[in-house]
Design goal:
367 residues; single chain; 15 strands; binds ligand T4K; three-stranded antiparallel β-sheet; seven-stranded mixed β-sheet
């Protein structure tokens, strides 16, 4: 029996490096509520994110909730159908209406022309996703947001450490939200962050993540509990120091896939922009009609060989019961997302994936 290969596997610091920090947390009994690890981790991220306004939170879903609540939105929010469900759920949970616009095949992200066409009197924001860490067309989206007086929020859950031409892409938009979930390129077990363009945004997020409490006697608004705990923050600090090593390991896997999948009929590998410093957290391929099998057939063939690829993001969000009755959810409105959801397969990629494991994946694709 060959061993299982999963789509991802978390990078972790050596356990012995964590133990002294756990001992300190045990002795101080400071477990949460902006403890010393939290404060240190949050200030280290200011450099990483190229923005002074960073707020740590408990996960990427709460990061989205914080951004949406603190952006003072009303009515409709234009978003992508091609993402993890948390993106649209954050709009719906805030009592707003998601309006789906189609994506572009080459980068998996919102098509700015389709975004502009979807704007109505009710639109208050664009919630775009840098899907798989592939950057949105920020210049175009920012110009649309300015022209129509809309907030621009990026779900940057996949984007830790991703830079374009040297700029961290999480510094774009009024708010950008990150996930540090176990399955992400950078993890704190569970965790996340909000990067805000303006200090007032950070002030609002800091209040919102702590029940709206400003001080012992002042609770100026509503809020939730979105605080990161001390163990996650301590792990985050250790993870920062080994992120580049993990990135390089995943980059080597991506390079091998690129070399070995080139020229296989029906397998399309998205182009790599030379200005992009990716975190290689996902390796999506399109399995098209010219391939000898359909995407689901290849997914199942992998499973039979104990290789657990993932069909991120199938089914696409606009087809789900919570959204499919919206006028913008019609398949005819989002045809490229529909095709991507039917054709994309994410291959295993993680630090520690062995050459022999990659051989197994490639052998199945070659048939
Ligand atoms: N926005 C976007 C665009 C997102 O992609 C996400 C999350 C969010 C927002 C919300 O962020 P968070 O609130 O989650 O911080 C996963 C993750 O649960 C989810 O975080 C992620 N996106 C989504 C794309 O994928 P699953 O259901 O695919 O994960 P699961 O449990 O099947 O794990 C995949 C593989 O990873 C497993 O086969 C083995 C490996 N694994 C997983 C975990 C959890 C491990 O080796 N260890 C682990 O602890 O959803």
């Amino acid at each position: 029996m060959t061993r299982d290969i999963t789509v991802t596997r978390p990078s972790l610091p050596p356990l012995e490096e964590l133990i002294p920090h756990l001992e300190r947390i045990w002795s101080t009994r400071i477990l949460s509520n902006r403890g010393p690890y939290h404060e240190q981790f949050e200030s280290r991220l200011v450099d990483w994110f190229g923005s002074p306004n960073v707020s740590l939170v408990a996960n990427g879903s709460l990061a989205l909730d914080c951004a949406i609540r603190c952006a003072d939105l009303t009515g409709e929010v234009i978003t992508t159908p091609y993402s993890f469900v948390a993106t649209a759920h954050s709009i719906q949970l805030a009592g707003l209406t998601p309006v789906f616009a189609d994506i572009r095949r080459h980068d998996f992200n919102l098509d700015p022309a389709r975004v502009e066409a979807a704007i109505t009197e009710q639109t208050s924001a664009i919630l775009a996703v840098h899907c798989y860490g592939s950057p949105c067309d920020h210049d175009a989206l920012a110009a649309i947001a300015t022209r129509h007086n809309l907030k621009l929020i990026y779900d940057a859950a996949h984007c830790f450490g991703v830079t374009l031409g040297g700029t961290p892409i999480v510094s774009w938009g009024d708010f950008a939200t990150l996930s540090f979930h176990a399955t992400k390129a950078f993890n704190t077990l569970e965790g996340g962050a909000v990067v805000c363009a303006h200090p007032a945004g950070k002030e609002a997020v800091d209040l919102f993540r702590n029940f709206g409490i400003a001080s012992e006697e002042s609770i100026p608004g509503v809020g939730t509990n979105a605080k990161m705990n001390e163990i996650s923050a301590a792990i985050g600090l250790l993870q920062l120091d080994r992120f580049e090593q993990a990135r390089a390991a995943r980059g080597a896997v991506a390079a091998r896939y690129r070399d070995e999948l080139a020229g296989i009929a029906g397998i399309e590998v998205p182009e790599h922009d030379p200005r992009l410093n990716s975190n290689y957290s996902y390796f999506p391929i399109f399995v098209t009609a010219d391939y000898g099998n359909c995407r689901d057939g290849l997914h199942n063939a992998m499973k039979r060989a104990n290789i657990y690829t993932r069909r991120y993001f199938y089914p696409h969000i606009a087809s789900l019961p919570a959204y499919r009755d919206l006028p913008s959810a019609r398949a005819a409105n989002v045809p490229i997302a529909v095709t991507a959801a039917a054709e994309v397969l994410c291959l295993p990629i993680y630090e520690g994936l062995q050459d022999g494991d990659i051989d197994r994946v490639i052998a199945i694709i070659r048939g």
